[in-house]
Structures are given as C-alpha cells and as structure tokens.
Specification:
CATH topology of the largest domain: Rossmann fold
CATH superfamily of the largest domain: Vaccinia Virus protein VP39
Strand content: 15-25%
Number of helices: 10
Structural class: alpha/beta
CATH class of the largest domain: Alpha Beta
Helix content: 25-40%
Order of helices and strands: EHEEHEHEHEEHEHHEHEEHEHEE
CATH architecture of the largest domain: 3-Layer(aba) Sandwich
Number of strands: 14
Length: about 375
C-alpha cells in the first residue's frame, strides 16, 4: 500500500475525502487544500480516472527531518528512482514550503534533481533530462520548518484539465471547483439545473458529465501510464468499464444563459465539440430579464465580482436587482452564488440559508445559498 496526497480547492477537502474513500482510499487525514490517505496503485489509477474534485494525486516516496539542504539531498538519494520510471523519462522538480528556514527553495530543488540524477548514474550509468515545460515525471518537495516530504506525481496535467474545453473566456472557473459547487448545492440529475451567467459553460458541462456518469479522466492521459510497473491491461479494463457506465439516456434539464453573446457562442461550440449539445438549452440575455426555465430547480452560478471601486459600485446596484429577479421569477428554486464580494447578501437584502467558505484560486469566496419559497417573495430564514 502507498501513502498518497491529493490536492484540491480549499474548501472542498471533505467532499474530496468522501469521493476518494468511495474509490478505495483509507486512513484519510484532511489537510489545507488536500488530504493524505493510503491506497494501492490500482486505486490511485482509478482515482485519477474518476475523481471530479482532485487537482493532483501524488505518492509519498520519502519523509524525514532536515536541518540543511544536504539532509534533503540524502533523503532523495535514499529513493530507488529507477524502480519508478525509466531514465529516458524527462523530469521536473518543484519545491514549496511553509515556515522553511532555508535561504533558497531553488537550491533545494536543484539538490533533489541532483540526487535523482546521481541515483540513475550510479545504477544505470545515465541521467534523465529536465523538461520544465512538458515533463514525463513531476517530483514535488514539500518542506515545513523541520520536515521534508518528497512526492512523485501520478496525474500529469492537473486533473481539472478534463480535455473537453477547447475555447474559453478570460478567467474561467476551474472544472473541479465547478463540480464542487454543484456537489455542495445538492443537485441531482432529476432536477432542473440553471447557470444564468454561464460564461464558456463549465458549470453546465460538469453537471451534464455528472448526470450522464461520464468519468472526468476518460479522454486524457496520466503520468502513471509511464511508470515502470504500469499495468496496461488493467487500466484498459478500467477505461472500458468507465465507458460502459455512461448513461446517455439519462433525461436532463440543463439550462445556461449569459448576457455576453460571445460567451454563448463559445459555450455552444464547446458543447458541440464534445457532442453534448443536445443535453443543454442555451439562451442569450440579461439574467434580470430571464424567466425560470422550469417550475423549480437549482441555480448554481459564479457572478462577476469586482476589485476596482467603480466595479464595486456597479455591483452594489446589481445585487438588489438580482434579488428582485429571484423573488419575482424563481420562487421554488434553490439558488447558489459563488462570490468574492461578501457584501452580496446584505446588498440583496436576503438572508442566506447557508454560506460555505471556498477559495477560487487565491481569492477567498463564499458560496451563498438562497432558498426561494414557492408562492412567496420571502427567502427562507
């Protein structure tokens, strides 16, 4: 069994734990923006294929104390790298730290790279090349004030890169964050789903893939496929099982709209390219003028939130109008808004039934839930 670490969006750690436990993880310990767990390599392959919430899954190869860079070099030298990957694979080494007393993380990165190359030279009389742009193997060092951990990545490209989005707008929401919002909303495929500020359509695509049971990693490659002990036949069986599990006959009511006509065109092209366009109904227009596309359902959206003073002033005018639209047209709907503007509920004059802290990149946000009571203009207190 392997000790592993999976990274995710800050705020989604417990959801990720639940997901990975269902995929075979045990002895799970939550951390900031991730979690440690124990699993087999077969489990790790399955997690990469099926996890909608993880950003990256890594195997812990070494852990120990240190006082200077030489201690970390020796820790890395103790790993039998040639048992994990071939010398012909390109590598990239990265280092991050919290409260590290060492002067240069770049020097730590260099020493770990040296340790890997020295190990290969000693054992096979050759050294791997470094490729920072497109490496076959990514090695991650994480330092605290007293300990060093060395990980080998199993994912390759980050797992929120599903391989389906061809066109995008500026600052699109990441796919695993989008699915996290959907999961936090409690949406199930039997209910209507609506994103009224859809941008390039990430939330709608994630809802459809979840509803149809399309594995997020089905159309991409992974770093573990280049491991020396990679079981090609077993993973082919996993892929085939995931393909067979898709339910294209699942009825879905997915709706998406945006005030930006270009965004709608980009979203339509994205859906058409992956042949999921028949599962979504697009409309162009201002949310303030939109009617509910169904009697009840779930809204999940990521509205604009400003940084400059003029943007904040505009949003202060927009929020009460959104509240009026919800009261007038969306009675019976559960509405979820992800925003970094914590003034939103106060300016809307609506009390959220739930507010979940979550990070969009480095920006601290809240997912506000407003339950609009059917037959009334009042929100649930």
């Amino acid at each position: 069994m392997l000790v592993c670490f999976a990274t995710t969006v800050r705020g989604l750690e417990q959801l990720l734990a639940d997901e990975l436990i269902a995929l075979g993880a045990s002895d799970v310990h939550l951390a900031n923006a991730g979690l440690e767990f124990v699993a087999s390599l077969d489990d790790v392959m399955r997690m990469n294929l099926h996890s909608r919430l993880a950003s990256r899954i890594m195997i812990r190869l070494a852990f120990g104390g240190y006082r200077q860079e030489e201690d970390i070099y020796q820790l890395a030298r103790g790993i039998k790298w040639e048992e994990w990957f071939h010398v012909g694979n390109n590598i990239k080494v990265s280092t991050s730290a919290i409260a590290c007393p060492l002067k240069s993380l770049d020097f730590v990165t260099l020493r770990v790279k040296d340790a890997i190359c020295d190990d290969f030279v000693e054992r096979v009389d050759a050294r791997p090349n470094v490729d920072k742009a497109n490496p076959d193997m990514r090695i991650y060092n994480f330092l605290t004030s007293e300990t060093a951990t060395i990980y080998l990545d199993t994912s390759g490209d980050t797992l929120f890169k599903r391989g389906y989005r061809r066109l995008k707008l500026e600052a699109p929401i990441r796919e695993n964050l989008a699915f996290g919002l959907i999961k936090l909303s409690g949406w199930i495929p039997d209910r209507p789903f609506y994103d009224p500020m859809c941008g390039s359509g990430t939330l709608a695509i994630e809802a459809i893939c979840y509803g149809l049971n399309i594995a997020p990693g089905l159309n991409r490659e992974f770093a573990f496929e280049k491991f020396l002990d990679f079981d090609t036949e077993l993973f082919a069986q996993m892929r085939a099982a995931a393909q067979d599990a898709i339910n294209y006959d699942q009825p879905l009511q997915i709706f998406a709209s945006d005030i930006n006509r270009n965004a709608i065109e980009i979203a339509k092209q994205n859906f058409a390219q992956i042949k999921l366009d028949k599962y979504v109904k697009f409309s162009y227009g201002d949310f303030l003028e939109q009617k509910a596309p169904a009697e009840n359902g779930v809204i999940v959206t990521n509205p604009p939130y400003g940084v400059r003073l003029d943007e904040l002033d505009n949003l202060a005018e927009l929020y009460p109008q959104i509240a009026s639209t919800l009261k007038r047209n969306f009675a019976g709907w559960d509405c979820f808004f992800l925003t970094g503007d914590l003034r939103m509920p106060k300016l809307m004059r609506l009390k959220p039934s739930r507010k979940t802290p979550i990070f969009n990149g480095a920006l601290e946000c809240r997912l506000f839930e407003f339950k609009m009571v059917s037959g009334s203009n009042r929100e649930v207190k």
